[in-house]
Structure formats: structure tokens, C-alpha cells
Amino acid sequence: MPSNPVAIAVDAMGGDHAPDVVLEGVATALDADPDLHVLLVGPEAVVSGISLERCTPIPATEVISMGEHPANAVRAKRDSSIVVGCRLVKEGSAAGFFSAGSTGACMAAATLVMGRVAGVDRPAIAAVIPGAERAVVLLDIGANADVKPEMLVQFALMGRAYAQVVLDVSNPSVGLLNIGEEPTKGSLLAQEAHALMAASVPGFVGNVEGRDLPEGSVDVIVTDGFTGNVALKTMEGLASVLFSQIKGVLAESVTSKVGAAMIAPSLKALRARLDPEAYGGAPLLGVNGACIIGHGSSSAQAVSNGIAVTSRAARGNLAERIKVAIAGSDQPA
pTM of the entire structure? Predict the structure, then answer.
């Protein structure tokens, strides 16, 4: 099998448990991918002592904390680990960037430093949701609360490109999140977006409803960032409550405890299948390079998965695919 080397910049200071969890995740990712090279960005005291093969320390004198104003921090801290990581992509030293740090700062730095793909009005954040039938790419999940119909067309095209590269779906189906299946349903925004998507988005199947998210009836579901964030957080909260309630019920009696012991392997497998950490984080689509943003509470395994997804997106030329898709659409300027 021919080698496919790729260099990925990683924020050593990203996440609630950095740098220890990040360093462990980097080591796991390197062990799993012999063609991966990591540029580990962070304070010299943290990264200079790293002795992993194919891991190059890149000193950065500043760190952007979760509580800082994202755009202001990116402009003020030009030598922060997030900004330096994005700069490595801009300069061509790395093909992608992964961080479990501030989502806002990662988005601001990637947009300002890496730059937007030609034709993209605004980058969008996506999430991969493990549905019953298939994994679903949902976007936007919070980057753009207010959108125009033309932007939803761009989100659809970017989501399709991500599903092709990362989920190996050759011809992804696309749905527009709405309150009914008919083209005349929903807000004026939704109706206008439906008409545009029907005319210019390959694989568009029309409107889908909230139940289609957990069912996985389509590959990509498009909506504005406000609605997408609410939908995602609702699903995450519901899953957490359900597993907690099931755990409580199974501990109520001796009989239920015996039953719990019998089905424990199946429940563990189900939880693993529904674990969002398996998909490594949220991609920021529409910037010049692969950019994956991990959850602040990411475990070492989640960091490793995030690095793997970033390398996959980079190897699949995600940004170029998005550029071609946007340029080839029939959406109005």
C-alpha cells in the first residue's frame, strides 16, 4: 500500500484537561497512523520535552482561554497556540489543524488566518450524529444564527463534501430541516432555501423533520446555526437522560441487576456506537484547510479521533472539494 504522508498541527493547550490529555491523544494517533506527522503547538515548557517520533514541537508563547472574547483574543494574541496552528496551515507547513480549545477562537483564527474558500460567504460548523440508519452530518450547529437562503445552499454543498471525504458516502442525500415535508412549509427563509436547493444541490430530497436526525434518513441535514445548535443540544441532553434513567432502572432490584449484568455488553456497545467522540469533533467547513474542533471535555481517545479525522479530511482535499462544489453550483451570486 503506498504511503500517504500528512502533517497536522495540534493545539497542545486545547481542552479542559490539556496538555496531558492532548499529549496522550497525539501519541495514540501517531501509533495508529505511520504516515502521520504532528506539529505540536504550545508553550515551550510543554512541547519541547516531547520525544515522540514524527512529532515536531512548535513553540507558542500565548494561550487563548475559554473565557476570552474569541475575535479579540485572536487579534491580540498572535502567538497563541490556536493562531500559530492556523498559521502553519496557511503557510503550507501543515494540511490541517485540530484543537479542543475555544470553539469561537478556533473559528475566528481559522477564518482570519487560514481564510475562506473562494465563494463561501461564511464558514459553518458541522456535527456528525450517529443515526439509526446511518451517520448524519448536521450543519450549521452554531456558527451562523442568522442566515440567507443562499448560505443554506452553500452549507448543503459543504456538508456533502464532508460526507464524501470523511464518511465515504459517494453520493450523499441532503435534507432541509423544517416543520413539514411539503415545499411550502416553514418560514420564508426555509421556503426560499428549498427552491434554491432543489435547483442547485445534488442529492437534495426536500424537507426533513426533527425525527429524521436520530433516524438517519438522509446523509446531510441543513439548517441555520440557531436551530442546529438547539437540535444538537436537545439530542445530547436526551441521550444523557435516557442512559441515566436506564442505569437507574437496572439497579432497582436484585432481578434487574441480574438482567443488567446479562445485557451490559450490549448496552456498552450501544453507548459506544452513539458516542459523538467517535467522530473526533466538529469540522469548520469553508476554510482553506482541514479544521476540526474538539469538545472542551475531550478525552485522550477523542483527541486521537479528532486528529485522525483531521488527517482524513486533509488527505481527501476537503477544502478543494468544497471549492469545486461551490464554483459548480447554480446558486445566484
Answer: 0.88
